[in-house]
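dude i think i finally got it to work??
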Amino acid sequence: MTYWIRAYNHTQFRVADFIRDHGFIDWHASNNFVVGDLLFLYLTAPESRLTFMMEVERVDMDLDEIADDSSYYISQTSYDHAMSHNENRKYVRYGFLMELSSPALTLEGLRAHGLSGAPRSPRRLLPETVDYIMSHLEDGK
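look at this
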């Protein structure tokens, strides 16, 4: 099993609302995810913190296999831009495991425990960072 971090920006797509409404999210996959991998979703600035713990449920999905998420885009322009890049991509489904609310799971805390900088694209996490995150899963509940 591999632990990943993936950033998202809520100014174009309502990621948190989709996850809360459906219990999963489908996302284009540029990495070699494997069913069972764990992923932490990182909300970009100004929040700059982990928000969800997810598990890879499906890989190598085609566009016609993913959920219709069109109503979660903030604007038609955002939707059109996303669709213009999606036709030949592969997708992965992340299933919801837990919402994260610990005040320790901010960029500052993650950087103090091995994360090299603010995440932009999906990347593997170092064991030190994973241990830190796991030790704070119950904080803030």
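The chain has a mean pLDDT of 93.
im so relieved honestly
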